[in-house]
Amino acid sequence: MNGKLTLRPPSTVAIITNNTCNLTCNNCGTLQNYNFNDVSNWAQNEKYIRKWAEIAHFDDIDLLGGEPFLNPELYTWAKNVKGLFPNTTVKVSTNGTLLNLDKNIFLSRKIVDLGVAIIVSTHTAEDYELHREWIHKIAEPFINDLKIERIFTPSEDIIHDTVQEIYKWKDSGALVFSHVLVDRMYPNYILEVKDNTVILDDGDPIKSHEKCIFNVNCMAIQEGLFYKCPSVTNYAIMKNLVNYEDRAYPILDSYKACSPFQPIEEIKEFFESLYEPIDACRLCAFDKKINPTTMERPVTFDKSYKKAFKGATKL
Fold it and tell me: pTM of the prediction?
């Protein structure tokens, strides 16, 4: 678009606003079920996001956490990102559990006014109708201007039945809300956190990449830098919070995230490399973890995960 760099479609890119969550979903793809605390400040990120907007076009941008409604600057992020990427679908992705708070009802309406959609992923079937009521509460002032579509996707092999409700403006067809039940998750890339140490696996990097469900759809910008997938995105911050196995450091340290201020040819090369295996794929070992009968696992919550990181021991 207008000579800007693009990714292979569909190019959904996450911008991490915080690594803090109020839930402890097992198998969280970005390890927010652990005591992984970090909030991104807009002022410190602005020059990077502005530069990305100058040189690149992304079809979709998800403002992600953690739980983004725990970032006190969420409106600032939504306003500025949408302003810098006016031709991009910008969304805030939330677990929905905080939408009933008066401050978040007001905040959600302001976000919608920006032209930014709110994506609600409810993690328990019991909460689905409750979150639906909260969405309608938020939309109360403009509910008559919305068209609501209910989409049912029947189960096919490893994927369970899903129901998704899509809320769009009647006049423009632009997305306003999406509400879906996500009560199952794919296994994440670690084996466990034990004695304040992240325990990883060892597999074939090429076969692991082929099996990985994060390999082409979980690209992220964190603190201004562009990363391929959760394992390397998380490592950039987690290495200051927790130990990794000694063998993992040289592999993870060898990965270099991309800055928008690098030479344009380097950025082009980096964008192409996003679809290829990296050395860190061996540590995820998805070739061992995923098969047709265990690809999805029911979401459960265990608050003991939050005690797994006992403090910064690797600085």
Answer: 0.92
CA distance 13 to 90: 10
Q: Higher model confidence: residue 193 or residue 132?
A: 132
Check residues 25 and 140 and name the one with the higher pLDDT.
140
pLDDT digits (tens, 9 = 90+) for 242-254: 889 999 999 999 9
What CA–CA distance (Å, rounded) separates 208 from 27?
A: 17
Q: Is residue 226 part of a domain?
A: no
Backbone region of residue 285 per phi and psi (left: phi > 0; alpha: psi in -120 to 50; beta: other values): left
Q: Label residues 227-252 b or e (16+ Cβ within 10 Å = b).
A: bbbbbbbbbbbbbebbbbeeebeebb
Domain assignment of residue 314, yes or no:
no
SS3 for 15? strand
d(CA 107, CA 97): 14
> Are both 237 and 206 inside the same structural domain?
yes
